[in-house]
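Risk register update: the risk of archive-format incompatibility is retired. Evidence:
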Amino acid sequence: MTATVYDATPCALGEGALWHPERGELFWFDILGNRLLSRARTWTFDEHVSAAGWIDRDTLLIAAETALFAFDLSDGTRRNLCALEADIARTRSNDGRADPWGGFWIGTMGKRAEPGAGAIYRYARGELRRLFGGITISNAISFTPDRRAAYYTDTREGQILRVALDEEGWPRGAPEVFVDARGAAWGPDGAVVDAEGCLWNAQWGAGRVARYSPDGALLATVEVPTPHTTCPAFGGAGLTTLFVTTAISGAKPPAGQTFTADVGIKGQAEHRVLL
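Archived output:
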C-alpha cells in the first residue's frame, strides 16, 4: 500500500497529526517553522509547537516549547495551562497525545537532540507530572483501546516500549519492550493505535508506517514516497484514512509534505482533553 499527497505544503519537520472528530478536520505542525497547519489556514507562533489534543470544537490544547496552552481556533487567542520545561532553554516539546481519561501525555527533547535531555509528562486534572526521564527523542505516545497500556519510544534507543496503566491512567510497573529495532537503518517515530489494538508506527528513515499486532508482530506497511515519516493519525469518514506527516531533513520533494492512504482499518477517535 502506498500513500499519496494530502497537502503539498512543505514542513521542515512535520509532526503532531490530529484529526479533530467534531470538526472533521486534520491539524498538524511544522515544529521548526513554529506553525500549526490545516488545509483551511496556518497559524504561526513565537516558539516551537509540536502536538495537540482537542478540548472542544473550537479549542485545542497545544504543546509548545515552554508551555501547554489552550488555543482558540476561531480568534487565535491563547491561555496558558502550565509551564513545560520553561526554565530549560535547550529543550522543546515533541510528540504528544490525549489519553482515554482526558489527560495529555507530552514528550520533550533537546533542540539539538542532546542525549538524555528529554522526558515524558502527563497533564491531568490541572497537574503536570513527570513520568519518564533521560529520553533523547520522545515519540510514539499512544494508547490501547482497552485502556490497559500506553506506548512510547526514545527514537535514539530504537525500542518501542509498552507500559501498563492503572484505573486512572497512570503508569503501573516497569515498561517492557514491544518492538526492538536496535540496529535498524530507521528509527521508530510517532505512533497511533487502531480500534483492533494494533500499533501503527512512522519510521524515520524507512519511508513507511508499519502496523504491528498487539504482540509486536509486523503485519503490514504503508509506503510513503519520502524517507522521514514522523506521525500517523486516523481520520476521515469511518476513521479508516491514515494521515502521515513527514520531514524534509535533507531529502528532496515531496519531503515534508503530508500524506494519506485509505487503509480500510478503523482507527480510534482522538480522545477529548478534559480540563
